[in-house]
Amino acid sequence: MPLMKIIGSFVSPYVRKVLACMNLKGLDYEVDPITPFFGNDEFERLSPLRRIPVLIDGDVTLSDSSVICAYLDEKYPGHPLLPAGPNDRARARWLEEYSDTRLGDLLIWGLFYQKVVRPAVWAEPPDADRVAATLGEGLPRELDYLERELPGSRFLFGDIGLADISVATFFRNGTYAGFEVDCDRWPTVAGFVERTLSHPCIASLLPFEDVQRSADIKGRRQALLDCGAPLSNETLGAREAKRGMMRL
Fold this sequence. Notes:
It contains ten helices and six strands; from the N terminus they run βαββαββααααααααβ. The protein has 248 residues and is α+β, with helices and mostly antiparallel strands.
């Protein structure tokens, strides 16, 4: 039986979330490292909303990170992604949704897209007003909230799980855009993010992210193979046909 395949960029916070959860469960998979914001008709058939990641598991194809993680937790044994009790499970789901929407809006679209993607992909300057509003208003509000909600010296529900990964993944993209949590103002958040991103399920992905961020697009596949990335032999990435708005 073929390995599960993930279509998406290692640099995407949503792809990172899914791969980290698969690593936690000890699942074997391969990755088609399609370049964000490029795609073709075949990709749109697999992901009607043009979002990554896409999971292909036999005859199952899914294209939303939250749906994918729920599917993985229900289908495959091993490390549970959600806590056992209904109250904690509901809170974990809330933190995943909160992160995907609010932290995604701020750290991805307010910072990473503006300061990294727009110059590199579209040859456009950042929206300075949006960056300023993100740094001056949006992020401080949410960091104040997280400072009250996150644990000081552990993970949210005992061992690391989906909620922890969902929160922390966006801060890595914030780092790529030059943002770091002020550890004097928000020490709990800073410690939690560092602790979570240092866990092997996520830290093991960092070399692949570094390659995908730095290598020339034509040599990126070989560079990823050289550093041990579990790449698929047949890829959409090799057949990218047109540039378009693919969601991170």
